[in-house]
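Ticket 4471: requesting a sanity check on a complex prediction with flavin-adenine dinucleotide. Repro inputs:
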Amino acid sequence: MKTLLILGAGTGGTMMASHLRKKLPGNEWNIRIIDRALDHYYQPGFLFMPFGIYSEKDVYRPMGRVIPKGVEYTEAEVDRVDADANRVLLKNGNAAGYDILIVATGVHPEPEQVEGMAGPDWRKNIHEFYTFEGAKALAARLKSWKGGRLVVHVCEMPIKCPVAPLEFCFLADAWLTQHGLRDKTDISYVTPLSGAFTKPVASGILGRLLGEKRISVVHDFAIARVDPEDHRMVSWDEKEVTYDLLVTVPPNMGDPMIERSGLGDEMNFVPTDKHTLQSKAHKNIFVIGDATDVPTSKAGSVAHFECEVLTENILGHIRGEELTAHFDGHANCFIESGHGKGFLLDFNYDQEPLTGTFPFPVVGPMKLLSESRLNHLGKMAFKWIYWNVLLPGLPIPFVGHKMSMAGKNLPSKAA
Amino acid sequence: MPTKIFAGTPVDTDDEGYLVNHAQWNKDVAAALAAEEGITLTDSHWKILDFIDKDFKERGAVPGMRRMNKIGNIATKDLYSLFPDGPIKKAAKISGYPKPASCV
Ligand SMILES: Cc1cc2nc3c(=O)[nH]c(=O)nc-3n(C[C@H](O)[C@H](O)[C@H](O)COP(=O)(O)OP(=O)(O)OC[C@H]3O[C@@H](n4cnc5c(N)ncnc54)[C@H](O)[C@@H]3O)c2cc1C
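Returned structure tokens:
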């Protein structure tokens, strides 16, 4: 009996367990998954909790309900991978051997990386919505909001779901309007980038939308420290932004376990072949989702597309073949823009997000990079799709891992 | 593609002034690129430029801030004082490497 071991039962790890359990014979392969969490979280739902659109119950399920049948689940904290010995050491003193290892431990926010951020103002006037606890605390804080300076902020890139802080701005604008607080609140968006988003066409369109919603943008702001007493952020070149409520996205880093294992780079991301998803250091270690260093978005949709490639490549690896399935960096992200509307982005390593229709030319039904009600409905439908289609490893019709150019307008027409 | 004359030799750059062909780079070109940014190169600057050069040759990418800190042992505040206003972009340009891709 051989063992395929998966570290992390989040989006990528759980999907891989579902896909591989269907493909690997039960009498030859034991599939084992290890995670320290008691529950599986639907992280895109964290965005909606502060505004009361989702309640706590919408965003989690006990692990037992999402781990596929025939997969052995261990609740434990991984201490480190001993790649030379093909085994993983757990914090509880146990060890787990493997023939093939999949690292799916994701990334998490680390406010301690910024001087003063995790200090006395943390969870008082400084909040985040990238964790369940954070989203819950921010929901409580917004209940007592009477107006003032609301600053939405990104510390440094890359972060998972790079559009989420923009979505937070749009939803805050709508929520404040509904509650009669918009005219009493200044919203600003503070980013280390030179514009609203990383890619030019999307950056232009999203930047205009911020303007229309009276959200001011402070760009090229590289945070050096937070001064919690005076409620202000200071950049490395001594610019200042003051806040009454700071909603920040702290630096997103891979798990310290990656560092202890000697498997990571300076962000604790695992150096990974961007096409095959094999670790660059070890042939029997594969990496999926946010834990990789591949140059595309850290997003659940990316993990989903990677999953198809990785399943093929692991089967190829087992047969002793060259790895032939190639990932193109495909990402597909809905952006909530408030008031029941949304955007859709579709892009990959080579092609930036463009305008057009998705997945079919002309008829869509989704519209790329422009606001529509259907895009919003698509985003809201995603929660059901996530629990019932993605995690159990069922296919989504018409949307494959290879990005399609059908329906996309080339840049000259797009602006 | 613009061609500029640096230290007496023609050098190809992109529209933003980043070198297109690293083979055309040398220390005199670096000094000329730095002068365009209003910087006079000292040993402290060269410590950073040398690290970028070494790291690019190993990994094929301009190192980010954290990599400079952790692997290159270079403090962020030094980067800002030596290469004001966007140190990574400026240092990359002076090293003759492409503009660092902002992460997706
Ligand atoms: C606010 C927000 C909004 C988002 N919106 C979207 C969206 O609209 N669309 C989209 O596609 N994506 C979105 N995402 C991103 C998406 O949630 C992530 O990209 C996705 O979950 C990545 O999957 P993963 O498997 O790599 O990591 P995760 O799902 O984060 O799973 C990692 C797992 O590893 C476990 N783990 C880590 N270290 C250890 C250890 N040492 N020992 C044991 N267990 C460990 C963790 O407990 C966790 O269960 C959003 C994320 C956030 C935070």
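Notes from triage: Chain A has a mean pLDDT of 94. Leaving this open until the requester confirms.
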